[in-house]
Amino acid sequence: ELDRLGYQDRIWRNSALRALDRAGVKEGSRVLDLGSGPGFVTEEIRARVGESGSVVALDPSPRWHKVLRQRFDGAPNVTLVESSVEDADLAEGSFDAVFSRWVFSFLPDLDGVAAKLLGALRPGGALVVQDYNHEGIGVFPPRPGFEAVVRAPRDYYARGGGDAWVVGSLPAILSRAGFEGVECLPEVRCGGPDSDVFGWADAFFPRFSSTYVDEGLMTAEERDRFLEEWSERRADPGALFFSPIVADVLGRRPAC
Question: Where are the beta strands (DSSP E) in the chain?
Answer without folding.
Answer: 30-34, 54-59, 78-82, 95-101, 121-133, 138-140, 180-187, 190-191, 240-242, 245-252
